[in-house]
């Protein structure tokens, strides 16, 4: 059907799109086990966000369903075949340093600021409004279209496991959760923890006992704050001065703070998505780099030396002898996301490894065990997702490429990423937006935003894509 100006139709719904997105982004849908209950497996707020979307679907006359609060869907159309659009409503923790409160959305200079604006509430709402547009225009469909809303994407994907054990797998579909034009390949992903006991120790003469070291909240985020506590009879003034010099010469923010029996060192980094560990400033790695120059107790020294020798400047796994690459998705990457150390307690490091489609979990794990054993760590795989690939000639890819080209005048090229999206939860799934080429990626960062014009354009693209895939 020719003659529909998709962008013009979206413009008519711009206010609705922004109003509903404001309401959705006001819900603090971060994983919260403390408020989990039957029907709200990942906490009250995530449940609230899911129910908000399903209510919108009901009011718009769609068929809706909650699958025990793990996920839900909004559906239209008929027929045997099913087209899926997968988005998620959970968001990562906010971190520090926001200009405006992260759950009080605000439009400034044409940008919509809120946690989740880009990842993934903005695109979820764009897909919903796109479905509504197709419905309101009365366009005939020969397939069902289902907007599937997940709630545990930023953690362990328990939502998708639960949902697809009970609901039909779409014949094909897309997720609006990274970039345009079309992402057809994604790296494999491993979250693993390194853990060990810390024997009681004492500060060396004229040195320091590492009392504690902590940074990071999630495997897939670059830590933006690191903190270490030291105790001992070393020269406090000298260490503080050395630390100031280190911060100044590296142009890093941070400070040292004395109290009765210990010295605290704090370093501020820059958060970034764990799929691009060199894109941020990893606070833990830089603080360890400094501490490696101080005289520490043996166990504390070993922990810091591990970070400094095996992770600093080793974003492609070179220092762990894991480096590998393939033509489709590029090199393996390693993000140090979580760091915990307590004197006479536990020590741990959480790593997020993204590996080429040709790579193997067993081989990577075995190599890790070899590398970390001298440092007293054992390795546990917490989460693993296989790499994912859809052929460029598939009707799904060709259709989305044509839609993209018609609406933007740019070539609908295929891309590969290190990120892990719901595309791989589908047997045949790709990523379609919302980030346009050249735009800043603010997912997982402070002051996350989406450009309002881009959101409107993406909605138009999704509407045409939904129609073309299901007509």
Verbal overview:
The strands form six sheets. This protein has an eight-stranded antiparallel β-sheet. A six-stranded mixed β-sheet has the order 1-2-6-3-7-22, sandwiched between helices. It has 471 residues and is of the alpha+beta class. The mean pLDDT is 95. Helix 2 (14-25) packs antiparallel against helix 4 (121-136) and helix 4 packs across helix 11. The longest helix has 19 residues, at 452-470. Helix content is 30%, strand content 27%. It has helices spanning 6-11, 14-25, 44-59, 121-136, 158-164, 236-250, 283-291, 298-311, 361-372, 395-408, 452-470; strands at 63-67, 71-77, 82-88, 106-108, 111-113, 144-150, 172-175, 178-179, 182-186, 188-197, 208-215, 225-232, 253-258, 263-268, 325-326, 330-331, 333-342, 346-355, 378-385, 388-389, 414-417, 429-431, 434-435, 449-451.
């Amino acid at each position: 059907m020719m003659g529909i100006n998709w962008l013009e139709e979206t413009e008519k719904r711009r206010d609705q799109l922004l109003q509903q997105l404001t309401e959705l982004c006001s819900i603090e849908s971060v994983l919260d086990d403390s408020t989990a209950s039957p029907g709200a497996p990942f906490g009250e707020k995530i449940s609230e966000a899911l129910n908000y979307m399903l209510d919108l679907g009901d009011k718009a006359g769609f068929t809706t369903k909650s699958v025990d609060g793990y996920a839900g869907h909004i559906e239209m159309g008929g027929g045997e075949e099913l087209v899926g659009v997968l988005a998620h409503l959970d968001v990562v923790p906010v971190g520090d340093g926001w200009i405006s409160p992260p759950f009080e959305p605000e439009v400034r200079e044409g940008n919509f600021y809120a946690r989740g604006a880009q990842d993934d509430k903005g695109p979820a709402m764009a897909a919903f409004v796109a479905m509504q547009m197709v419905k309101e225009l009365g366009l005939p469909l020969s397939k069902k279209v289902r907007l599937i809303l997940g709630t545990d994407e930023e953690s362990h994907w328990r939502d998708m496991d639960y949902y697809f054990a009970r609901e039909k797998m779409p014949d094909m579909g897309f997720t609006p959760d990274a970039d345009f034009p079309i992402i057809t390949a994604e790296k494999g992903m491993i979250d693993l923890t390194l853990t060990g006991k810390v024997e009681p120790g004492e500060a060396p003469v004229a040195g320091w006992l590492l009392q504690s070291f902590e940074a990071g909240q999630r495997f897939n985020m670059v830590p933006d704050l690191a903190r270490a506590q030291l105790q001992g009879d070393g020269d406090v003034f000298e260490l503080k001065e050395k630390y100031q010099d280190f911060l100044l010469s590296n142009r890093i923010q941070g400070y040292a703070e004395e109290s009765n029996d210990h010295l605290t060192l704090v370093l501020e980094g820059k958060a970034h998505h764990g799929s691009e560990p060199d894109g941020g400033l990893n606070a833990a790695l830089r603080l360890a780099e400094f501490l490696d120059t101080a005289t520490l107790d043996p166990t504390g020294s070993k922990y810091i030396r591990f970070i400094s020798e095996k992770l600093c400047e080793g974003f492609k796994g070179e220092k762990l002898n894991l480096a590998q690459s393939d033509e489709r998705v590029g090199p393996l990457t390693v993000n140090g996301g979580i760091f915990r150390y307590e004197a006479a307690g536990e020590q741990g490091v959480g790593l997020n490894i993204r590996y080429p489609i040709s790579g193997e979990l067993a081989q990577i794990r075995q190599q890790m065990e070899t590398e970390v054993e001298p440092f007293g760590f054992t390795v546990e795989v917490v989460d693993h997702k296989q790499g994912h690939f859809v052929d460029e000639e598939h009707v799904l890819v060709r259709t989305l490429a044509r839609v993209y080209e018609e609406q933007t005048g740019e070539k609908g090229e295929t891309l590969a990423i290190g990120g892990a999206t719901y595309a791989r939860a589908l047997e045949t799934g790709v990523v379609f937006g919302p980030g346009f080429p050249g735009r800043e990626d603010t997912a997982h960062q402070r002051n996350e935003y989406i450009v309002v014009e881009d959101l409107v354009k993406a909605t138009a693209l999704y509407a045409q894509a939904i129609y073309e895939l299901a007509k």
